[in-house]
Amino acid sequence: MTKSSKEISDKALEAVRLSKQSGTIKKGVNEVTKSIERGLASLVVMAEDVEPEEILMHIPKLCDQKKIVYSYVPTKMDLGKAVGINVPCSAVSIEKAGEGEAAIKSIMGMTTGKVQPEEKKEAEPNKEQQHKEHKPKKEVKNEASGEAVK
Known about the structure:
This protein is an alpha+beta fold. It has one domain (about 5-110): CATH 3.30.1330.30. It has helices at about 5-20, 30-35, 60-65, 75-85, 100-110, 125-135; strands spanning about 25, 45, 70-75, 90-95, 140, 150.
């Protein structure tokens, strides 16, 4: 794990701890999946040591579709402790961050290449708008025959 990913995983655990105390979180793969599909999640945190990997394989794709930031932590036990339970936890979804909002924004700042919910890109003009703005080409006449050439 690189230093930056260590920093991100530490911030993610901090966000989970703070959100558990003052916000709303969902624990477990099924609850996290529902939270993402309903568009309620603001951050999803998953453990790297989940076996088999297929258990969590669908979550990053769902997060990308819904433009939800997700992060990984090294172990299920670390995630379970951050949530406040004494058993391992594979995935956690933060729905209402509460005091964890600053940590979530920090994670969003550390991750690159993802469109965050607040950073919506300007809509590209559709084909009709591009067509209206497109100026027709001038006709060029063939010098020999005098016919228009496109």
